[in-house]
Amino acid sequence: MEPKIVPIKEALDLANQYELDLVEISPQANPPVCKIMDYQKFLYEQKKKQKEIKAKSAKIVIKEIRLGPQTDEHDFEFKVNHAVKFLKDGCKVKVDVFFKGRSIVYKEQGELILLKFAQAVEDYGKPEQLPKLEGKRMIIILNPKK
């Protein structure tokens, strides 16, 4: 069926003749634009497309690793190995140094630990931004390399 301008009564009769629905596409146009189609089928197709788009979208998982300002070498390596595993799986890794009580005076140590951590996993992930202090935590987020 080619597009043409017809009165509403005639358009409704055509839709009934084909056992389809008359759907208004653009009500602001002059004259309003309508289309003869199976509306239920249209809704079904639209829902199907939305579901497909949702399935294809990547789900971002953030894993969190917590360190202290005086984390020793073995614990540090242990956490680095976990982070490497998470980055290989395609997850983002949020590494934070938590300062308890008066340990907040060791902010420089916390920043050094986070930068050392980012350097240790640089083959598998890259930092999103430099370490930043939020309250009693210093945080760095690492994105996996593709």
Written account of the structure:
By secondary structure, this protein is an alpha+beta fold. Helix content is 40%, strand content 26%. The chain has helices spanning 8-17, 39-56, 73-88, 107-120, and strands at 21-26, 33-37, 62-67, 92-98, 125-127, 132-134, 137-144. The strands form 2 sheets. Strands 3, 4, 5, 6 and 7 form a 5-stranded mixed sheet that branches. It has a two-stranded antiparallel ribbon with strand order 1-2. Strand 6 and strand 7 (137-144) form a beta hairpin. It is rod-shaped and about 80 Å long. The mean pLDDT is 90.
- The number of helices is 4
Helical proportion? Answer: 25-40%
Task: Report the order of strands and helices.
Answer: HEEHEHEHEEE
Number of strands: 7
The CATH topology of the largest domain comes to: Translation Initiation Factor IF3
SS strand fraction: 25-35%
Indicate the CATH class of the largest domain. Alpha Beta
Give the name of the CATH architecture of the largest domain: 2-Layer Sandwich
Categorize the overall geometry.
rod-shaped
Low-confidence stretches: none
Radius of gyration: 29 Å
Brief descriptors of the model:
single chain, 146 residues, alpha+beta, Ubiquitin-like (UB roll), Translation Initiation Factor IF3, two-stranded antiparallel sheet, 7 strands
Task: Provide a quick synopsis of the model.
This protein is of the alpha+beta class and 146 residues long. It has four helices and seven strands, in the order αββαβαβαβββ.
Element layout with pairings:
Layout: H1 8-17, E1 21-26, E2 33-37, H2 39-56, E3 62-67, H3 73-88, E4 92-98, H4 107-120, E5 125-127, E6 132-134, E7 137-144
Parallel strand pairs: 3-4
Antiparallel strand pairs: 1-2, 4-7, 5-7, 6-7
